[in-house]
Amino acid sequence: MRTREVYVTGFGLVAPMALDAATLFERICQKQSCVREHPRFKALGFNNSAAGFIDDGQWQQIAAGFGGNAALHPRQSVLAEFVARQALLHAGLTPTAFAHTRSGLFLGANKYCADSHDLHRASRFMGETGRVDLDQLLDNPAPSSALFGRRVDQQTLHLAETLGIRDHISTHSDACAAGTMAIGSAYRAIERGEIDLAICGAVELMANELPYYMFNSLGALCQADLPASEQSRPFMPDRCGFVISEGAAMVILESAEHAQRRKATTVGRVLGYANVCEAQKMTSSSRDGSKYEECMEAAIEDAGLLSSAVQHVNTHGTSTQANDSCEALALQRVFGECQEHVTFTANKSAIGHSLAGSGAIEAVLSLISLRDGVLLPTLNYDHDRAEYPSLTFLSEPMRQSINVVMSNSFGFGGVNSSLVLGRA
Amino acid sequence: MSIAVYIHSAAVLNAAGSECADLLGTPPSPQPLAFDATRRAFALPTPRLASDLFDRKIQRSVEPQGLRLLHCVARLAPALAALQLPPARIALTAAIPEVDAPSPCWDAVQAISEQPQKPLAQLLANTPPLHAITLLNSSVMAYVAEALQCHGPMGGFCSQDNAGLDALVEACQQIVEQRADAALVVSSSPNLTPALYLREPTPSAEAIFGEGAAALLLSSAPSRTTPHALRIAGFARGYSADPQRGAAVARRVIDQALSLEKLCLGDVEQIVANPEDAQLMSLFAEHPRGVRSARAMTGDLGASTLLSEIALALHHTQSASATPGHTLFVSHSRAGHWGALLLASETLEKHT
């Protein structure tokens, strides 16, 4: 028994083609991909235009629920507020709740990334000598929703102000692990007794031109001649990279005492967490899976459990050769003879890889599996041709009551993190 | 805190120099910016990395901001190695806001400016070093971890000026909770690019930014090379976007940081804070005293400010004339973060 138990009492989520967690969960259950051809990528002449992206129709609905003129705010802030409102509603909290208790906000995000419109606009203020006319640029302000005025922690600040967060706000920028690390940090802050209530997760809008090019030049993006929805193929032998995506998810964490005092309905519990730096290689882990294994073992130990207690794993499963082989070997090492009793899922074949957003989104999907007793299939997974057949990835959704799920996020540069979640 | 955490060693790099003692010298003058002669700042030449510690390709693939950080932290390698700890017991936390992007974007901006009709895909293909490694803070952290062999818990923070305190607190807690025996805390200021000025919500013509980096080595045991040690004695964080509530938050934060040592503000020997922040300075009106700051020597170092000031405090502690006492660091970010950190300078027992 921990000194302070940490309950999950609500969540919110926006992903490509899904404006809430239930819709996304249902889409994946029905094996409907959220990955499509991105019209702007296509127009700009990129070889492969597959992406998960929040489309104009979704943005209109997100903006409609914004508590102000959405056009005056960066999209990251608008999205953060939309998802936070969902989470608050789900948890039965009012926005003022954070101002009246010891509270924190922990958000993962990586870089603000200029899109092609931003780059073209800035280029108009660059002189022949290559110098930017800063005064002219400042004197011709773009809306605050655009250009280089954006910063990586803008959505954190917007939410902190909107919710009246009292004690702790932080922005975590730990690559693909940032969302999981934000949730883990919030969990630790409550467990230590620093705060009683937290909203945590990630907001990432990287499905635009510059990140696409950057990840593609690294060889991390799938360039297979396949329909967009079939490109991400986690743990399959013909996998060849991830599909870039975007999205946001947040969860409400509370100390058990705080949740019980206000008679909150509990969605799940955070049981354990670990984050480990390996720096083995910039874009892959130790080939034998030992570094990922260390991280998972540390999270299970933090939860006070044995690996045999974990019944389901939401893998990082990026569909790159390096990640999936390292993770598969690590899973085999962690679960050993128990692995036949464990089921696995990889959500990125359905949603794409939203970097910081992915860990938070996958944590929410894991919580729904715990709550509803439904395990998600892995799209584009064929067990008959699987490279790691001893790992039971589901091709179809499965109804099964489970008590403990582990959710993995492993970032570039060896930022590894695992979260252990339990049923309410 | 049941386990004590000490500031074991420190390294700095800023306009004043690359030694902590340089922060006590004659203030340098800020110079006009390369891209805007009407604004002044403390720019630094891009350092060259030690080839015995870092792969040569890093020099080419990391932005100046990351290179400053790596150059700075390299000087802690001997002290860290001397601790003889397993890599898994060494944590790494970083405060590197906006370390890479959007400044790489300026290469793309320039390419577009020169060839506006060319398809973007082709321009990007010829615009180095646009790849994901330069995009993520974790890349710089990984280079630190690889070179200095720290493979314990890690965390990167991007909360503007407050990121330094976030990184320090995270590192301290990893040691207190026995997940690590030592920790590297690294920080960098933003690059002096147009983006830095555009990012600020109310760009001030008077803002004098500086480029720099700072790194600390925390340990559960003090360095035994000097008769005095600098111990982390308390910390607290708070936030308020509402200036009306800011003073109350700040007082709570200060009280909380002092509480473990059962001190009040009047008991503190030294206060370190930004003397140009009127709201912050008003907190000390009832206990008037000199407030120290190295800001005039370096410019506003953003996320590196706190760690640079701590490095200077360690330098004072390790001097022959050091006396026991407490130093309180109080920070206030433009966004509304408040932070307080209490350090205790103590005489080590074997030297008494």
Give the overall average pLDDT of chain A.
90
Q: Compute the number of helices of chain A.
A: 14
Could you tell me the strand content of chain A as a percent range? 15-25%
Question: How would you describe the shape of chain B?
Answer: globular
The helicity of chain A comes to 25-40%
Strand content of chain B: 15-25%
Strand order of the largest sheet of chain B: 5-4-6-7-1-8-12-11-9-10
Q: Compute the CA-based radius of gyration of chain A.
A: 21 Å
Order of helices and strands of chain A: EHEHEHHEHHHEHEHEHEHEHEHHEEEEE
The biggest beta sheet of chain B is recorded as: 10 strands, mixed
Strand order of the largest sheet of chain A: 5-4-6-7-1-8-15-14-9-10-12
Q: How many separate helices of chain B?
A: 12
Helix content of chain B: 25-40%
Write the layout of secondary structure elements.
The complex is a heterodimer of chains A (424) and B (352).
Chain A: E1 6-14, H1 21-29, E2 36-37, H2 39-43, E3 50-51, H3 56-64, H4 75-91, E4 103-108, H5 116-123, H6 134-139, H7 154-163, E5 168-172, H8 178-191, E6 197-205, H9 209-217, E7 246-255, H10 256-261, E8 268-277, H11 290-302, E9 312-314, H12 321-335, E10 343-345, H13 348-351, H14 356-372, E11 374-375, E12 392-393, E13 398-399, E14 404-411, E15 415-423
Parallel strand pairs in A: 4-5, 4-6, 9-10, 9-14, 10-12
Antiparallel strand pairs in A: 1-7, 1-8, 2-3, 6-7, 8-15, 11-13, 14-15
Helix pairs in contact in A: 1-14, 4-7, 8-14, 11-12
Chain B: E1 6-13, E2 31-32, E3 40-41, H1 56-61, H2 64-74, H3 77-82, E4 90-95, H4 105-114, H5 120-125, H6 137-148, E5 154-157, H7 163-176, E6 182-188, H8 194-199, E7 213-219, E8 228-239, H9 243-259, E9 270-272, H10 278-281, E10 291-292, H11 295-298, H12 305-317, E11 325-332, E12 337-347
Parallel strand pairs in B: 4-5, 4-6, 9-10, 9-11
Antiparallel strand pairs in B: 1-7, 1-8, 2-3, 6-7, 8-12, 11-12
Helix pairs in contact in B: 2-6
